[in-house]
Amino acid sequence: MLEYENLARLNAPFLAQYQDKFAEIAQKGWYILGNEVSLFEREFADYCGARYCVGVANGLDALTLSLRACAFPPQSEILVPANTYIATILAVLQAGHIPVLVEPDIRTYNLDDKLVEAKITAKTKAIMPVHLYGRLCAMPEILSLAQKYQLKIIEDAAQAHGAALNGRRAGAWGDLTAFSFYPTKNLGALGDGGAVTTDNAEYAERLKALRNYGSSQKYYNAMLGVNSRLDEVQAGFLRIKLKSLDKINAHKNKLAAIYQAELPGQFIKPWVAPEYYHVYHIYNIRHPERDRLKKYLAQQGIKTEIHYPVAPNKQQALRGILAQLATPLAEEIHRTTLTLPLSYAHTETDILHVCKILKKF
Ligand SMILES: *Cc1c(COP(=O)(O)O)cnc(C)c1O
Question: Which of 65, 131, 182, 308 has most ligand 1 atoms within 8 Å of CB, for mutation?
Fold first, then answer.
């Protein structure tokens, strides 16, 4: 049996260092917003190429608080890709705004910049490019649209730690960028965690207050904040793993290259271009008979996942909330996509085995 993911095995190389760090923090007795969080914020901002980083409790809060830091008028329209993970859309709703869906580019699965302009109205305030599966969106085009229409850009980089376009990483393009450190992400903690990067000192200050009850000075609350803090233990673990993030991404690229070279043409593979450094948060293929393929692989002992089986505008929770627009491209992706095993814990032999089985389908 070939597992889709094994987080214990993935974290095993870091375990001894995590244990030392845990003992250090436990003995120090300072557990919330201390040195580890500050150091991680500095190191992660530097890694991304951003001026500031603010740690928060998870990726959803990173998105929601980024929107709140912008202080847009209530019910502003925010452009999001139609095939994103639901978190992006929930963040817009939680911040009191209106998500407006834009269809993806069927080749990259990312927001199609050519379809953005038609969705911009007088109420539009921001574009949220989601770097889905670990590949950056067409950021130069999105930046020029934002400039032309005076919109803010909030990147959802929850799947794109270390991903780059022409050498410029996720987190260094938008006005604000939200990251998640959920355990399965390329930079994953041993629990929940998130962060926002920005070059704007005012946004960074607002985020620091928002995550901590709206307070910059203890017991004085200038804003209606929340409790959304990255804790010291997770920050300590993330500092350790961050040192290996490039190695993790390189390993995933090496495994992806095997799929790219081995898989026959009946499987639609990720589009590659030299200017994009894809970090393969997941490796997906598309096939018209996706469900039969998934079952076949399961029978052969290979576990797979679907990212994602249901389009956001078809989710029960969003019925009556999202405008009922046709999103045929997003639906085509949801209907045909299949995620193959590919993680830091997999070997080249594992991937070659999957390829061998796939060739017999
Ligand atoms: C994981 C993810 C999030 C949410 O992160 P959490 O830490 O689980 O809240 C947001 N957007 C995308 C695209 C994600 O993949």
Answer: 182
Closest residue CA from atom 12 of ligand 1: 158
Lookup result for tokens 């960028």 = 177
CA atoms within 13 A on the CB side of 263: 21
pTM of the model: 0.98
Ligand 1 atom nearest to 180, measured from its CA: 7
Distance CA 156, CA 63 (A): 7
pLDDT in tens, 72-115: 999 999 999 999 999 999 999 999 999 999 999 999 999 999 99
The pLDDT tens digits of the residues spanning 253-290 come to 999 999 999 999 999 999 999 999 999 999 999 999 99
Q: Domain check: are 214 and 323 in the same one?
A: no
Q: Is-contact 322 313, C-beta < 8 A?
A: yes
Question: Which residues have C-beta atoms less than 6 Å from ligand 1?
Answer: 58-60, 84-85, 87-88, 130, 156, 158-159, 180, 182, 192, 194
Domain enclosing residue 305, as ranges: 245-358
Question: Of 21, 125, 152, 185, which is the active-site residue?
Answer: 185
Evaluate whether 47 touches 245 at the Cβ level (below 8 Å): yes
Sign of CA dihedral 224, 59, 118, 332: negative
Closest by CA to 128, choosing from 158, 167, 89, 156, is 156
85 CA → ligand 1 middle, Å? 7
In a domain, 160, yes or no: yes
Active site residue 185: yes
Total structural domains within the chain: 2
> Alpha helices, DSSP H only, in 133-224?
139-149, 201-210
Which of 189, 221, 242 is the last residue in one of the domains?
242
For the chain, the residue count is 361
Partners of 78 in the β-ladder: 99, 126
| Residue 345 covered by a domain | yes
What is the DSSP annotation of 93-153?
A: HHTT-EEEEEPBPTTT-SB-HHHHGGG--TTEEEE--B-GGG----HHHHHHHHHHHT-EE
